[in-house]
Amino acid sequence: MVASTETALIARSPADVFAYTSDLDNEPSWDVEVVSIAAGADEAGLEVGRRYEIRFVPFLAEAEGTLTVLEVEPGTRMVLQTDFAGLTSRITYSYAAHGAGTRFTRHVEVHPVGMLRVVAPFVTRRVRRANRRDVANLKRLLEAD
Question: Which domains does the chain have, with CATH numbers?
Fold first, then answer.
């Protein structure tokens, strides 16, 4: 397993940060590896067990896979799972009030299977770098409004 945890203090309320990150149509604006999530992903809100088609560029080429909502605790926690090409990733978003803002934490676990375990060191560096960049992007976007 490959894991990365990044935290940022965001000068917005936990409700605002949750609202933005739980609207999956916003995901490509701050997670640069996500190209798109099925149109209208936020129509009915997030429902546990709901599955979406996702297109992203996790390594060198665009890939398609699924994103599944595993847990939703509005304003507190959200857990998503992506599956594609032999990789399963679990992404946990945590939100906590911190002064007038939010302590936002994004924990990513990637579980390579089969021959993909051979590239785990490469995946580790890539996941850590991407997670750090994406959390910084989210902070920048939300504080710019």
Answer: 2-144 (3.30.530.20)
CB atoms within 10 A of CB 42: 13
Amino acid at 1: M
- Residue 116 pLDDT exceeds 70: no
Task: Please compute the mean of the pLDDT values over residues 64-69 and round it to a whole number.
Answer: 92
Give the span between the Cα atoms of 81 and 18, in whole angstroms. 17
| Cα angle: 124, vertex 62, 60; to 5 degrees | 45
Q: What is the pLDDT of residues 5-56, one digit of tens each?
A: 999 999 999 999 999 999 998 999 999 889 988 855 555 668 899 999 999 8
C-alpha span between 145 and 143 (Å, rounded): 6
Tokens of 67: 């994103």
Structure tokens at 117: 């375990």
The reported pTM is 0.89
52, 78, 85, 123 from 66: Cα distances, Å: 6, 16, 10, 19
- HSE-CB for 128 with a 13 A CA cutoff: 9
| 3-state secondary structure at position 38 | coil
The Cα 144–Cα 136 span in angstroms is 12
How much is the mean pLDDT over the chain? 88
